[in-house]
Amino acid sequence: MMTMGVDVGSTSSKTVILRDGKEILAKAVVSMGTGTAGPEQALNQALSQAGLERKDIGCLVATGYGRLTFPGADHQVSEVTCHGRGISFLLPEVRTVIDIGGQDAKALQINEKGRLMNFVMNDKCAAGTGRFLDVMAKVLGVPVEGLGDLSAQAEQPVSISNVCTVFAESEVISHLAAGAKLSDIAAGIHISVARRVAALAMRVGVEGQVAMSGGVALNQGVVRAMEAELKRPIQVHPDAQLAGALGAALLAAERAG
Ligand code: ADP
């Protein structure tokens, strides 16, 4: 039986197709989120990769910020539940998940079955989210995908003291004007995000093995800075950005079963 998870995010759309709740048949990420053609494109990309049509999908679960507006879903499930399940499938030993997406950050505790035990979330402020990184990458004139490699060359990360994204942006501009190296500024930006998110994670409690999910997990600079803040290793699966869609496809298989 084929099931599908669709994660309609604020910034990007992700889909996963599973066979019998066990085998990943297809996956897609489209860099357009809710309110755009992104969800539909991600759905069609995954279906064509798997050589399937919509009618072949036994159950479809939508998750993410825009899940309620996605047409044709059999169920909607919150992204915290889905990220927990998805990460547990990819990295079964993990008990703490730090999910940084386009416009929020969450820290979750999960049990050995991937069930959500507790979580905290920041969705009130852009600091400590992908949005903060996207804004800063633009100011530096580099693609957000390149920030991690850039920060790896840092020698003396700059300090970014403002929490507010707008003020932090001015701070970055003044570092640029003062001639600071781009790599040192990028590292300072990552430390700023990591401090915010580490404080969030401490509130839920960081226990057992730790993993990151969401698109920002692909930024090695943030992962390294988070490891330094939490003083422990963090696992990142190559499909970390797809964890929510994968969890949704797993829950679809359970519900259909
Ligand atoms: P959402 O689910 O809220 O739409 P995602 O979990 O897809 O968001 O995360 C989007 C964020 O991930 C972007 O704002 C960007 O900062 C970051 N991101 C996405 N792809 C990459 C990449 N290849 N390298 C580094 N950062 C990335």
What brief labels describe this structure?
Nucleotidyltransferase, domain 5, 8 helices, 40% helix, five-stranded mixed sheet, binds adenosine-5'-diphosphate, alpha/beta, 257 residues
Describe the structure.
The protein is α/β, with parallel strands linked by helices. 40% of the residues lie in helices and 23% in strands. The protein folds into two domains: 1-91 and 238-257, 2-Layer Sandwich (Nucleotidyltransferase, domain 5), CATH 3.30.420; 94-236, Nucleotidyltransferase, domain 5. It has helices spanning 38-50, 79-90, 130-140, 147-152, 165-177, 182-204, 220-230, 243-256, and strands at 2-8, 13-19, 23-30, 57-63, 75-76, 94-100, 105-110, 116-122, 209-213, 234-235. Strands 3-2-1-4-5 form a five-stranded mixed β-sheet. Strands 8-7-6-9-10 form a five-stranded mixed β-sheet. Helix 2 (79-90) crosses helix 8 and helix 3 runs parallel beside helix 5. The longest helix has 23 residues, at 182-204. The structure holds adenosine-5'-diphosphate. Adenosine-5'-diphosphate is lined by residues 9-12, 33, 64, 101-103, 130, 133-134, 144-145, 214-216, 218-219, 241.
